[in-house]
């Protein structure tokens, strides 16, 4: 549809874009995001995949609402958590404000580099995503939300990037309205683990309990450099908990939690790096060791 939109007359282009913007009035909750906003935007851009993302930078936690559900499936994303930080767009938005100009994968890497990227090899080749375009809706520093669109074959053009830039304010308003709703919808947690969860509803997001995390190992485990308390902290990091939540659960002060987290990073050899999310890497280390 996007190519036909590009080739259509200016009046026809305007009409299709206007119809999409008008459809956003129907988006009152995250079910509307799933059923109206995502497929409408995908149709306008000839994308076969559209995803709404909620990302917590501090916890390295990402929740996603994908369309169509039969394409954005957990079994296609099993390797994603281990390589999330190497996604060009994710690395960029983890370090810088997400709200701004739309960003394409092809703005950051070549097609060959993208297909050699671990994210593509581990997950996105199954989704048949050869190029993505993404834009942010909200960003409070510790967390951000946004939309990504993916398609196979040809890359997104400059014209399509400009179109997304024009539409993003209206899309952002619809997303903010939807997030205030009390309606919860099924979704996926795609980092630090891939598990079913829910979005919306005004409560805490709860991941499915069907995937049990390993229990802390005994303090005497041979070759384990972590103390018992550090293992407890690491377990909660692996569950996607923030430092504040860890402090509440373990009855520790924020400063003490920060000290334990820093010690875990140091003992696991996770030095600060602009391209890495150390909480995600620490969670993966915990799971591998379990």
TrEMBL record:
Pfam families: GerE. InterPro entries: Sig_transdc_resp-reg_C-effctor, Tscrpt_reg_LuxR_C, WH-like_DNA-bd_sf. Keywords: DNA-binding, Transcription, Transcription regulation. Coiled coil: none annotated. PROSITE patterns: HTH_LUXR_1 (PS00622), HTH_LUXR_2 (PS50043). Transmembrane segments: none annotated. One of its GO terms (biological process) is regulation of DNA-templated transcription. Residues 204-223 are annotated as: Disordered. It comes from the Bacteria. GO terms for molecular function: DNA binding. Residues 219-289 form the HTH luxR-type domain. This is Regulatory protein, luxR family. It comes from Geodermatophilus siccatus.
């Amino acid at each position: 549809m996007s190519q036909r939109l590009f080739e259509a007359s200016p009046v026809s282009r305007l009409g299709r874009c206007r119809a999409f913007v008008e459809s956003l009035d129907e988006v009152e909750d995250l079910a509307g995001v799933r059923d109206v906003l995502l497929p409408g935007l995908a149709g306008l851009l000839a994308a076969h995949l559209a995803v709404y993302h909620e990302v917590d930078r501090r916890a390295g936690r990402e929740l996603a609402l994908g369309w169509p559900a039969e394409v954005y499936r957990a079994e296609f994303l099993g390797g994603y958590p281990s390589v999330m930080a190497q996604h060009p767009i994710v690395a960029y938005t983890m370090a810088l404000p997400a709200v701004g100009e739309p960003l394409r994968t092809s703005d950051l890497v070549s097609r060959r580099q993208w297909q050699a990227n671990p994210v593509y090899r581990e997950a996105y080749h199954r989704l048949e995503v050869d190029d993505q375009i993404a834009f942010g809706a909200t960003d409070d520093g510790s967390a951000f939300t946004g939309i990504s669109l993916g398609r196979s074959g040809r890359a997104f053009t400059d014209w399509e990037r400009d179109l997304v830039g024009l539409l993003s304010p209206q899309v952002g308003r619809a997303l903010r309205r939807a997030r205030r709703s009390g309606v919860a919808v099924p979704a996926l947690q795609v980092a630090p683990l891939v598990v079913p969860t829910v979005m919306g509803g005004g409560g805490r997001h709860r991941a499915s309990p069907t995937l049990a995390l390993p229990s802390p190992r005994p303090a005497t485990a041979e070759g384990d450099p972590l103390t018992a308390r550090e293992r407890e902290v690491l377990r909660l990091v692996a569950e996607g908990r923030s430092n504040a939540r860890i402090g509440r659960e373990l009855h520790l002060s924020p400063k003490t939690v920060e000290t334990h987290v820093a010690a875990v990073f140091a003992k696991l050899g996770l030095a600060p790096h602009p391209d890495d999310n150390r909480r995600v890497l620490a969670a993966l280390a915990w799971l591998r060791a379990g």
